[in-house]
Specification:
2 helices; single chain; mainly beta; 148 residues; globular; 51% strand; 2 domains
Length: 148
């Protein structure tokens, strides 16, 4: 177990810590390093970089000026002891992205490989990843993709 921090990418402010997590396992750090966005407190943060500093895993972020948090009507069905990844169809200029599929993983490595994949095949279609996020408000990872 280790420490992970989200820091604001602002040199003038000295890169302040926005959020920190003690006793985080490295699998969760890896999943978060694979994400382009963080949604927390109904705010969307964009990842700019990741670092390891003095034994602390750090994700540098800036507040997104282009993305807004979405309140989805359908809730993720929590499954005990599993990691949920929603696949949502990315559509340019959309405010809501349709749910294509929900993956449920018992193994962190399988979830990480899905988040890192550039292409996934779901329901007989190939999908190309546009981005990935961790949505702490809804406790789910989201894989955004468009059909190929």
């Amino acid at each position: 177990m280790t420490r992970m921090e989200y820091r604001l990418l602002d040199e003038a402010l000295g890169y302040p810590v926005l959020f920190y997590y003690d006793n985080v396992n490295k699998d969760e750090v890896s999943l978060r390093f694979a994400c382009d966005y963080l949604v927390k407190g109904h705010v969307v943060y964009e990842k700019t970089s990741c670092a390891i500093e003095n034994g602390t895993y750090v994700i540098y972020v800036k507040r997104s000026t282009e993305e807004q948090a979405v309140d989805y009507a359908e809730a993720v069905s929590a499954r005990w002891g599993s990691i949920q990844i929603e696949m949502r169809e990315y559509q340019e200029n959309a405010r809501v992205y349709p749910l294509v599929h929900t993956f449920s993983f018992k193994d962190d490595d399988d979830a990480l490989l899905h988040l890192q994949s550039d292409y996934l095949y779901v329901n007989g279609r190939e999908w190309e990843k546009t981005s990935a996020e961790v949505d702490e408000d809804r406790q789910v990872y989201v894989y955004y993709a468009k059909p190929v």
